[in-house]
Amino acid sequence: MINLKELLNSNQYKAVTTIDGPILVIAGAGSGKTRVIEYRVMYMAQNHIDPKSILLLTFTRRAAHEMLSRACKHEPKCSQVNGGTFHSFAYKLLKRYSKQLGFENSFTILEEGESEEAIHNCCARLNYLKKEKRFPKKDTLRAIISMSINKNSPIKDILEKEYPHFSDYGTEVENIRQKYIEYKLNSNSLDYDDLLVYLRILLTDNKEIRERLAAQYKYIMVDEYQDTNFLQGDITFLLGEAHKNIMVVGDDAQSIYGFRGACHTNIMAFPDKFPGCQIIKLEDNYRSTQTILDVANSVLANMQNRYSKCLIATKKETGDKPKLLQFKNTYDEAEWITRRIKDLRDDGVALHHQAVLYRSAYISIPLQAELSKRNIPYQVYGGRKFYETAHVRDALSHLKIMVNPRNELAWHRALTLIKGIGPKNAERIFGQISAASDVKGILSKAGELCKDNKSRFANDLRKLILVLDETSKSKDVGEAFEIILEYYTPILKRIYDDWNSRINDLEALSEIAGRYNSLEELLADFAIESPERGTREVKPELPDEELPLTMSTIHSAKGLEWDTVFIIGMTDGILPSKFSLDDVNEVEEEHRLFYVAVTRAKNRLFLSLHHEGFEQGLTQFNKISRFLDEPNIISKLQRKGLSLGSDDETTEQNKTTDDRILRGYNKKELLRRIDEMLKH
DNA sequence: CAGACGACATTTTTT
DNA sequence: ATGTCGTCTG
């Protein structure tokens, strides 16, 4: 039996062992929040609480999985705990209660790309495509509509605040929203936002269901509560209202999802919503060395919003001072970092204990190239999702037809892949076959259609129907996918010249597909719990030394930690992002983002930037981030090329690369070089 | 009407 | 560097 008192400090212990009643845990970075949840779940399971009555809502599936699998190691019963994201939880409930909500059978989830396509069709139907050229594009329209839901404010306000150049189109966007809602209702489909919206409706309007759920989920925990939006806040309240056994955990200084409607007022208002709530603060930091925390504390101190926080290390120093590295260009930076990563690995810091973090995915591309060149395996998190790439969507569309043969978007995609079928033909064909309601019916209709069709695509269409028929007969998901793959591969080779790398993706996908028991499950997981690119889960048993380096957006790095962290792209315009600069609150969020990034590091922290930038074909000078150009930060960092104090990297290799690091923050030299470059 | 080609803008963060 | 939109041709 585990002795919790030995493992936990007094506040952690209190959070773990207080089971009944509302609790708000304010957990600073690295204060052992994951441990608290891990042991609390274990503690509950060992104290005669049915693990099935515990609900753990987290921000990513990764987080839920991590905490539950740790808890399972102490107490196997924990595997029965219900855990996941708000969205996946909503999906499960909506499926269970789809009849009550008025869905005939089931419903389809629209991924982002699909909801954009649907919105595009709505625009076409409303004749908005021939408008003046400055009309917002489908992805912008989706973002506006989604933001209006997540921030709970009218479209007009969103346009004025976030898209002032489109503020004249309020009525049009409103009409599109209306049409889009109708489309979704007619086609039995829900987008991501709908999952939350409909769940809230279900809980609000249906007392019986609400009570039943409260009785089922008697103990609720919500992680990263500072990043929930008003819908999630309401859902939490509705679920926990009856029994009030609810613990939320968060850190207002780490709120980084404001752009998606997260309101940290949720965490502030929690004690008001649940009177009698106990507030437990976890402040001791178990993760980082004090020199790293000094940087983090200075970042906090420079923010507008004064967070009454000061991170104190419980760990002893390792002697590595955080470093600021300035380079001429992105190639020097990539080269230096790659070499440093290798050196550290040779010194015993395994690759998977190291991470490179950045504000936006595209920042990492030169470094990725260098890492590949030097044969350093890495795993990319965040940025464009695997399932959003065209070839994956092509392949999945065929499977989607199996699950819901009336999925117009999926048919459209599959049909237009056939040579000779474009948007018009696809629409006509779909119109002729969509009357039937099941796969069999639709396929036989399609078969008839092909019989006496003499058009140039008839043969290929026949082939598609044959393949779909074949797939629908197959019992095994992996097998079904193989059939599709065999059919799709020639098409892939025809339409993409880089088909080679795309085929690898599809093979990885095929492997994943084989692990599922039903197509529906597979597709829902892909939509809601997006699998990471690559093969992270395929080989979990690899020894430490062979696990890859992590490359991640700061957003996706949330809640995680590494021995060594490199934060690249520390320039103004990247962190903070240039899109945030005209709004104080948005800059503040960028500031918190920086704070999150810094506090991921346990022992070593490197901040880096390069001064030579390219934008729209022009060379420009990147200035150091304003977050570094602030009181007390620079002094906490050891500057390479600036401070010439004692240095632990005097190996020959490093010397040559260090020479490339700028001698100081020398604008003149750079501008001269930029001049030189412009001549050619 | 499909599909190729070229012009153009567009690049945040995620379920 | 990439993807989206419009135009032109067969």
What does this structure look like?
The protein contains 27 helices and 19 strands. It starts with a helix and ends with a helix. The protein has 680 residues and is an alpha/beta fold. Residues 533-539, 641-670 and 673-680 have low confidence and may be disordered. It has a seven-stranded parallel beta sheet with strand order 13-14-12-15-16-11-19. A six-stranded parallel beta sheet has the order 3-2-6-7-1-8, with helices on both faces. A two-stranded parallel ribbon has the order 4-5. It binds a DNA duplex (15 and 10 nucleotides) through α5, α10, α19 and α25.
Strand content: 5-15%
Cα-atom Rg, whole angstroms? 27 Å
Low-confidence stretches: 533-539, 641-670, 673-680
Principal-axes shape call: globular
Number of strands: 19
Number of helical stretches of at least 4 residues: 27
> What would the average pLDDT be, to the nearest integer?
83
Summing up helix and strand content along with how strands pair, one would put the structural category as alpha/beta
Strand order of the largest sheet: 13-14-12-15-16-11-19
The profile of the biggest β sheet is: 7 strands, parallel
Give the termini separation: 72 Å
Helix content: 40-55%
Keywords:
single chain; globular; 6-stranded parallel sheet; 680 residues; DNA-binding
Describe the structure concisely.
With 680 residues, the chain is an alpha/beta fold. The protein binds a DNA duplex (15 and 10 nucleotides) through residues 59-60, 85-88, 112, 133, 137, 192-193, 195-196, 256-257, 259-260, 359-362, 365, 382-383, 385, 416, 419-425, 527-530, 553-556, 574, 577-580, 589-590, 593, 615-616.
